[in-house]
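Write out this protein's structure.
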Amino acid sequence: MTLFAFHAFGVRNSNRHPRFEELGLQIVEKCKGLPLAVKTVAGLLRTKVNPCDWEDVLNNKIWNLSEGRNDILPALKLSYLHLPSHLRRCFAYCAIFPKDYEIKHDELIHWWSAEGLLEGKGGKNCWNLGLNYFNELESRSLFQKSSSDGSRFLMHDLVNDLAKLVAGATHYGLGKFEFEGDQNNASLVHHASFIPSRYIVLERFKIYHQMKRLRSFISLEKHSHRWDRSFLSQKVICDLLSKLKYLRVLSLSHYNISEAPDFIGDLRHLRHLNLSYTNVARLPKSIVGLYNIETLMLRGCESLIELPEDMEKLINIRFLDITDTPKLRAMPLYIANLVGLEMLSKFIVGTETELRLKELKNLKNLREELCIFDLHKVQDAGDAKDVDLLAKEGICRLTLRWSEDFENSQNEELEAKILDFLRPHQNIENLVISYYGGIEFTSWLGNPSHVHIVHLHLHKCRRAKALSSLGQLSLLKELHIEGLDAIRRIGFEFYGPKSPFPSLTTLEFRNMPLWED
């Protein structure tokens, strides 16, 4: 009953609702001591403020279906039946996950969006809508946080059974070593997942060739090291994709493939393409014909050297993740025309004839993560002012990076102005400044208005002779100061006038050659 009250009433006091408490006791008895049943039914009732709704749940005929091992199923089925229709569809989609699979909620939201399950109302941001849906399902105990990784989620085995039950034959998932499935129903499948092994034999894809109506083909992560890759021949990929004409979601991350098939450009319905952690060096030119694409994930593609020209044709793209792509040294010329972009994880500044920093001003919807590389190429500080990072309130992780080459004289005054103009919105939580060539840091860096900064890394800013009043950043937990060659000592200017660093847990000074005290 304590568990039930916690999930049903939250911070509310059940003693103020004696009728609710009376009904709650009877409902808890029907759960027969099973914690998952208690949590899911309580999560359902949290939103019910009328005692009549509680009586309907108590008297529902589903409780009479309980048999043996499936004692918990009636409670789960009740929770599902009381979900709004949009949440039912999102929950059923999770039938593609095998048992014990740890889910990344951001990936799942992207897949929901690509499948049209997040139809926003009144222009509401689809991502925020998906996050709300996920949080609602979690609050009803249909998802639970992983004990090993707080950023991942699990479905209880019985919840997974429920998802597969309500999804029926339209959803399909194979375990690691299963070769066979229900061959008769393969033609009905719309959404399918696949867990790769180290070496993938052609036989494992046999059943997928029969899924002519497939809309999602998702290769799930193996949860080993993120750089581990599965070996898959180009022929196997080509043979499979040539038969799947209606794909909306295609995820082939963590494969040891060096090129994407050119006919990916023929998948006109594709909205989500994930080639993260592959060896792809270039994307086929045909990819710019995917006018419906919303998400392109290329994170961790260490061999990627360029993006296709004419990417501005991808008018519906909203997420472009090119994090950890060290060989990518330039951006397509007109990429800043994609004004709908919500995520551009990396922006590389060009010269006068290439993509200038000020082009970022058009991308007003950017959020989450932004890394700006090659700031030493900026010739006019006004370009930094035009970017107007202060107005981009959705960005919470920001990296500002100049050139590693300090032998070539950097313009100290110009770089100081650029950093000053690149003041982010106060929502910033994670900030990295690398290879900055100014003598002083900007005044906004230690300003208490940036109270939300939790992680700060100053990296190889070799000419800076003093630090800002970082002690006044009241939520700062991690501070890393590395390779600031000109710093000799720190004092009052570093701590500030008030109680310094109230939240600090990690402080690191590293590679400080002139350090005196």
